[in-house]
Amino acid sequence: MTYIPYKSRYDTMQYRRCGRSGLLLPAISLGLWHNFGGVDSFENAQAMLRRALDLGITHFDLANNYVPPPGSAKENFGRILHSDFVNHRDELIITTKAGWDMWPGPYGDWGSRKYLLASLDQSLKRMKLEYVDIFYSHRPDPKTPIEETMSALDHAVRSGKALYAGISSYDAKQTEAAASTLRRLGTPCLIHQPKYSMFDRNIEAGVLDVLEKEGIGCIAFCPLAQGLLTNRYLNGIPSDSRVTKPHGFLKKNDVSEKRLAQVRAINELAQSRGQSVAQLALAWVLRDSRMTSALIGASRVEQVEQNVAGLANLRFSSAELAKIAAILVADEHTPK
Ligand SMILES: NC(=O)c1ccc[n+]([C@@H]2O[C@H](COP(=O)([O-])OP(=O)(O)OC[C@H]3O[C@@H](n4cnc5c(N)ncnc54)[C@H](OP(=O)(O)O)[C@@H]3O)[C@@H](O)[C@H]2O)c1
């Protein structure tokens, strides 16, 4: 059936400015790391993407190697893009990254110009696109000069194959170096994509300050800690959850008693706010005005709907924040 996006799709989504750039991103963006690959249901992937757009999610995040098999999420996304979203390309922010292992040999990994630019070409081919909106260095490469990696991003932008440049998983010092190199080259760093959730607060120790100073936006990946920060595992491990998937990056050991005790405590607080654990976890990530977007994953349409509905309450009282801090501090002092 021909898909026509809802006319009302922009009425309720909140859009936030990406650093000091001209670009606005939805407060919730959708990533295609899991559940959109060749082993997954194409119909389910299509339904999630359609519903996301209907809810005003304009940003879809990919990487060259999204799995399994590597690259298949791109091919599926490309198919859906050209069948369903073909008349809406200018309403979408589509991103890709390169920096992790993709093909054999010395040119299919890390941060060389050779790898990044070949990878971008392959990604465009898979998605049958002329350009992506943001091209990221997926991780810092300690052995490649930062000038080389950044000049590859700069080249991608100058050649018209990407509109903006971004970095992912760079620490504070690496972020400063990347930002100043890109500025010198004439292509500002638009955005940083770090891991950030109640269970991983590393970026609070420096990265966020650098981003604010440099005027770079921030999109948090794994804001639900891959599903731990939801009600998914409160009553055992469901057979259709990420933990049970052989290619899943969340492992059984990650669902520890310690984590579950924290999630139960968060759940109590969430219920008192009329929210689910996932909704509270996303609101917490978005509480900082330096945060542009929370980049979620999903395995079904209902999760996308629930997460977007949570945007109705992003405010926290100081008592609630103190309660969350106490739950998380308990984490820091308890062995895993
Ligand atoms: N830059 C990087 O290095 C990097 C690394 C990792 C990820 N990313 C990006 O970040 C995106 C998101 O990562 P992620 O999928 O790990 O994010 P996440 O949002 O932390 O976890 C998503 C998982 O949480 C569960 N979930 C989501 N909403 C739920 C709800 N309302 N109720 C119950 N469970 C819910 C689902 O698990 P089930 O599948 O079990 O239902 C879903 O697959 C990726 O797709 C990718 O674009 C980037």
* Number of separate helices: 10
- The end-to-end span amounts to 49 Å
CATH superfamily: NADP-dependent oxidoreductase domain
Which small compounds were modeled alongside the protein? NADP nicotinamide-adenine-dinucleotide phosphate
- The chain-level structural class is alpha/beta
Strand-helix topology:
Layout: E1 15-17, E2 24-26, E3 28-31, H1 42-54, E4 59-61, H2 72-84, E5 93-98, H3 113-127, E6 132-137, H4 146-158, E7 162-168, H5 172-185, E8 189-193, H6 207-214, E9 217-221, H7 257-272, H8 277-286, E10 293-296, H9 301-309, H10 318-333
Parallel strand pairs: 3-4, 3-10, 4-5, 5-6, 6-7, 7-8, 8-9, 9-10
Antiparallel strand pairs: 1-2
NADP nicotinamide-adenine-dinucleotide phosphate is lined by residues 31-35, 61, 138, 168-169, 193, 221-227, 230-232, 241-242, 278, 295-299, 303, 306-307.
Structure notes:
- There is one protein chain.
- Helix 5 (172-185) packs parallel to helix 6 (207-214).
- This protein has 336 residues and is an alpha/beta fold.
- It starts with 14 loop residues before the first strand and ends with a helix.
- The protein is built from 10 helices and 10 strands.
- The chain has one domain: TIM Barrel, CATH 3.20.20.
- The mean pLDDT is 95.
- Strand 1 (15-17) and strand 2 form a beta hairpin.
- The strands form 2 sheets. Strands 3-4-5-6-7-8-9-10 form an 8-stranded parallel beta barrel, surrounded by 6 helices.
- The chain binds NADP nicotinamide-adenine-dinucleotide phosphate.
- NADP nicotinamide-adenine-dinucleotide phosphate binds at residues 31-35, 61, 138, 168-169, 193, 221-227, 230-232, 241-242, 278, 295-299, 303, 306-307.
- The site of NADP nicotinamide-adenine-dinucleotide phosphate has 31 residues, from strand 10 and helix 9.
